[in-house]
Design brief:
mainly alpha
Length: about 450
């Protein structure tokens, strides 16, 4: 493949990342307008966000193994078709229920895009240096989407209406579909992992019942919440037992014997819970309470996106030079401080002071991402690194879903931001615990077990 064509493949993959990542941020700024038009309560707005992120979290691992089995280009094209169709359905939704259902369709397609696109990039760029550069460009698109999402969403909401935020995906999706058919070669894994339908169902039950209990619990009563949490706990226990019995599990539980890997998962859940809560609460505060337009609210989030884009590469260099501890600790401190300061914000808080707090949050979040990925794969055999990174990506989506669910269920924004401060403290504590000598030793022992071959099973699964 020529260099020009490799770059074109990278561009196509980045287009998919852009539209999927945009939908993680672009919808938040339209929530007040959407809620007014569809007469949606706070819980309905939570489901508008969480239906998307939860479905992504549930299906990322399945989509990756399916692409390895039946073909990455075929899976990628299917994802583009489903995502584009889901976006069109979102724009036509006559009620909240239809919108949530269309968001699920969107996310089913989205789950087939980003992890599969990363596999396509890995197989296209075989030179190690070129691959690193390509992954750097890929990561930069995330920062661009974070910056563009609120601004583009605010502009479309103010000038047209909230339905226009979904229209933007349609032409991009169709163009990416044509370019994929024309230029992306097909590829498969030499030996794909077996599918794990039972494990997949248990993951969906676990995440679905846990989130439902948090979001609907305050209105439905403690009995419903308790029942949901019991089912979620039972699903978690069954998932662990089932995955330990399988020769080729959906999630290899041996990974969690590595303290760095377990720490990366906890930091991903905590940090992205903070992000989800911040984006959800911020747009309601700026528009519903301070009376800003959707575009003005979107512009207020630019400091977060800008500082995240600047700090992210710096964090990556720090990880390479000194390991993940320093950026992880900085991330935890900044997220905790930002959460504590935001809990004191009122309607009369000067806007420059508010934006300054947003910058602190942006520094924390920008510092967090590189050490999560690095720590997740730290010491892992090369053959297992991709799966470990996929679990970290799933943890990010789970965290964002739980962050929105918990924040919307709190009695006040101040209480929700105090919980955000707690997320930062968890990141700080876990970073200190899982980046030292003892933690590295557990990673080395785990890597040695993983290289011995398939996990020892209680049955053949």
């Amino acid at each position: 493949m020529t260099r020009r064509r490799r770059r074109l493949v990278l561009l196509i993959c980045c287009m998919s990342l852009l539209i999927v990542s945009l939908d993680n941020t672009i919808v938040n700024v339209a929530l007040p307008s959407l809620g007014h038009d569809l007469r949606a309560p706070i819980s309905g707005l939570q489901w508008t966000v969480d239906a998307y992120t939860l479905t992504l979290a549930s299906l990322l691992m399945l989509a990756g193994s399916t692409a390895d089995r039946i073909g990455r280009r075929r899976t990628f094209q299917t994802g583009l078709v489903v995502f584009t169709a889901g976006s069109l359905l979102c724009s036509l939704a006559p009620s909240l229920g239809w919108l949530v259902a269309a968001r699920i369709v969107q996310a089913v397609g989205g789950s087939m895009l980003n992890p599969v696109a990363m596999s396509i990039i890995t197989n296209t760029f075989t030179d190690r240096r070129e691959r690193a550069q390509a992954i750097g460009v890929w990561g930069g698109v995330t920062g661009v989407s974070m910056a563009l999402g609120p601004v583009v969403g605010g502009l479309l909401t103010d000038t047209v209406n909230w339905r226009a935020i979904f229209w933007i995906n349609v032409p991009i999706g169709l163009l990416a579909l044509f370019l994929t058919w024309r230029f992306v070669p097909e590829s498969k894994a030499p030996s794909a992992r077996r599918l794990d339908p039972a494990g997949q169902v248990l993951v969906i039950v676990l995440l679905g019942t846990l989130t439902y209990g948090i979001i609907e619990g305050p209105a439905a009563g403690p009995g419903v919440s308790a029942a949901c949490f019991v089912v979620a706990a039972a699903a978690l226990a069954a998932l662990v037992v089932w995955e330990l019995r399988r020769r080729e599990p959906l999630i290899d539980m041996r990974f969690f014997r590595s303290a760095p890997f377990s720490g990366a998962a906890v930091m991903a859940v905590s940090g992205f819970a903070g992000l989800g809560a911040f984006l959800f609460l911020n747009t309601l505060y700026l528009q519903s309470h301070r009376g800003l337009s959707a575009l003005a609210a979107g512009l207020c989030t630019l400091p977060v996106a800008a500082i995240t884009t600047i700090v992210g590469p710096l964090s990556g260099r720090l990880v390479g030079a000194r390991g993940p501890r320093v950026p992880s600790v900085v991330a935890g401190v900044c997220l905790a401080v930002a959460g504590a300061l935001l809990s004191q914000v009122t309607l009369t808080t000067p806007l420059p002071l508010l934006l300054g707090i947003y910058v602190i949050f942006g520094v924390g979040f920008g510092m967090l991402n590189p050490p999560i990925t690095n720590t997740a794969v730290s010491g892992m055999p090369l053959a297992q690194a991709g799966v470990a990174a996929a679990v970290a990506s799933t943890s990010r989506q789970v965290g964002q879903s739980l962050g929105v669910a918990i924040a919307g269920s709190m009695a006040s924004s101040a209480a929700a931001y105090r919980v955000n401060a707690l997320y930062g403290l968890i990141v700080l504590a876990v970073a200190l615990l899982t980046t030292g000598r003892w933690a590295r030793a557990t990673a080395e022992r785990t890597a040695a077990r993983l290289t011995e071959g398939p996990q020892v099973t209680l049955s053949q699964g």
